[in-house]
Each structure stands twice: as C-alpha cells, then as structure tokens.
Amino acid sequence: MKEYKKRIAVFLVILSLAAFSGCDFISKETPVNVQSIASQPSIETSDNANSASDTNTKQNTETEKETDKNTSDKNRKESDEDKNKVTGLTLDVTELTLEVGQSALPKVTVEPSDAENKNEIWESSDKNIADVNSNGVIEAFSPGKCVVTVTSEDNPSVSAAVNVTVKEIEKTKVSEISVSFTEATLKVGESVMPVVTMSPSNADTLQEEWTSNNETVATVDKYGNITAHSEGSCTVTVTSVSNKSVKKNIKIIVESNETANQGIKPIVTDATYINGILVVNKSYGLPSDYNPGGLTWECAEAFEALRQGAAEDGINIYLSSGFRSYETQNQLYNSYVNLYGKETADTFSARPGHSEHQTGLAIDCNIVNDSFIGTPEAVWLEEHCYEYGFIIRYPQGKESITGYKYEPWHIRYLGVETAQDVYYSGLMLEEYLGIDSVYSY
Ligand SMILES: [Zn+2]
Fold it and tell me: What one-character DSSP code corresponds to residue 213?
C-alpha cells in the first residue's frame, strides 16, 4: 500500500506537470491552425487523466484499488515512458510566403524539452508546390498553396503545421533612367561615355542596351562608349533591358577635326564679295573660322534705327536671331537633318558655312515661322526696311532662285545705298548680282 501510494503520487505529479505545460502551451503558443488543434486531444487526455486521478485521491480506496487493479501494470509502464514522451510540438510560424526558389526553416519547439525521442517527421501536402526535407527545410518550387506538417515520431498524435504560399518571383522593373548628360559635342575620333543610373536599384536587371541612329556619325558599344566618326549629329539611345519602354536619348554632335577634315563639306578658304557685297548663299560659303563675333557695328546700328522707325509707326520690331557662328549653324542644321532629313532641311536651314547669319549682317525679326507672314510687322518690314539699309533676303515667289522658302522675318544689311538700289530694281539679291544659289555638293 505504501508502495502503491507513492507510485500514484509520482504518477499524479507527472500528469499535472504534463497538463500544466499542456495548458500553458495552448494558451500562449498554440498556432491557430487546423493541424495544431488536431494535437490537442492528447493534451485533453492528460487533463482528463489528471482530473480523474485527482478525484480518485479524494475518493475511497476501493476506487483506488480498482484503478490500480485495472491499470496498475499499464500505468507503471506508461509512467516510466511518459516521463520523456513528446506532448507538444510548436512551430514559430503558421503562415509562410515564399517566392519560387526560396527556402525556409521554421523553428520547432518540442514539449517537454527533455523528451527522449525528439525526432520529427516532416511532410508536405503538395511536393510540387513546396517540399520539405527531414530537417524541416521547406523549399518553394511552384506557385500555389500547401501545408507542411511536422509530426512527432514518438507521439504521432502530436503535430503542428504551417500554411505555405508560394508566389511567382516578383520582378521589379526599371522605371527610370538618368544619364550624366543628354547632349555632347565631339570632334571626329573622340569618345565619351555617359554615366547611367537606373532606378529602382533593386530591379531584376539593370542591364543597358545602346543604339545609335546614325552609325556613320557616331557608334556606341554595349557599355555606352560613344565614338565620333564623321561630322553631323545623331541620337544615341540607352534602353533598359528589363523595361524596354524606359529609355533616354543623348544627342551627339560631331564636329570636324581641323586636322582631319574629310567630311562632305568642301573647305571654303575665303569669303566671296561680288560688286563689293559679301555673298553667302548655297553657291557661296564662308570659311569655318569666319567669325565677326556678333552683328557688325554698322548692322547693329542700322537695326536700332529701323526698330525706332518702326516704333514711331506703332510697329514693334525686335531681334530674334542675329549672329550665328559656324559651329552653332552646324549643330542647328544637323539637328534639322536628323529630324526632317537632308532634303527638307536644305529648304529652310543653311548648311554650315552657308548661313547669312555667320556674316553678322543678317537678322531674324520677331516670329521666325510662317505665322509671321502677313502680320503688320511683316508688311512694315517689306515696305520700309530698305530705308535703313536692309532687304528682305528671301522674298515670296523667289524660292527657286534663293533656294529658300519665303522668309519675311529674315533681313540682310547691305547699307542704305545698295539696299535702296536692290529695292527699286524689283529684284532679289541673286538676280540683282546675276548669280545662282545652288549647293555644289
Ligand atoms: Zn535668318
């Protein structure tokens, strides 16, 4: 009897410890998912056993005896084994979201901590979505949902589970490209490389794709090294490989290299004067170094007089474009060629060396486009500019001779005497001088 009571007491202590730890486990750590709930019956069994035994101790020895009779041997056996039997399993996560290719190792807590057989059995409800190895490493294979369960080898009624969601690898696309410069002027043979920044920086690929729309002018390699080959302009474009709609253009202007001027442009060494008039048209060009540095003093003074004269008539004339250097015209013309093609560009923009603006004797007034045609200012210029020494250089109806469309805004300084002469002759400058205006190249 003494021996029996002692054994019962030990049994109760074990059961109450198990029950206590089980309750603690339920209230604090039980993950809220189906699989964990499934493990509760074993705990409840402990609880029931505990309360039953508790009742037993308060009741008569007959019952105790009965209990002893029925379960004595079994209890003794279980009591020794239960001492280290697994009663609970918990995972530190109940939900896991992984991208295809990712893996995770959930942390397992075995109760009691001194359980003899802590071996775990891992299983996935769908190995194609995510599989788990014997150590609990979960690996995601394809998009979908599955449940990974860990079961105690020692006590198969104890298990825990984690719901695994596998997603397609999220690709972050490049949304913006910035370049260290968007325009560069190079000499033939020179190279340059813009610094490219793609954002966001965690995009799946920051790879760049480079193209030049005119490889005769400049080429670009896969790293963005731009090399100038011949005079002209072109556009170099960098595109994001990850998102082809994201691109940035870099305008490249290639100037002739003085020592290696092999472009299509013939070298003009001298300005041409006919009857004392500096002539610049498609037939006659200026050398690239012809540079008065701005409007000539006479031209600027005459324009000021014209402006005041117009103002007295209630007409507002202002300068829109005066002197343009060879380099400026080169850039301007090439940009038009780039946009409209050479044939069209030649109808309204002079090739470098062939612009009257390089003489410092030509001015574009007011609005430099067709909307200026017929305005009171255009009419006033037509009727009065000769009084101040200017002519309308590209009159209406003379396109075939001048080679340019009607430009009522473009006036050319000839000095009052010559301008009056030309005006009263009813001729335009080429007719007046008996010359043509045709490119020889
Ligand atoms: Zn002009």
Answer: S
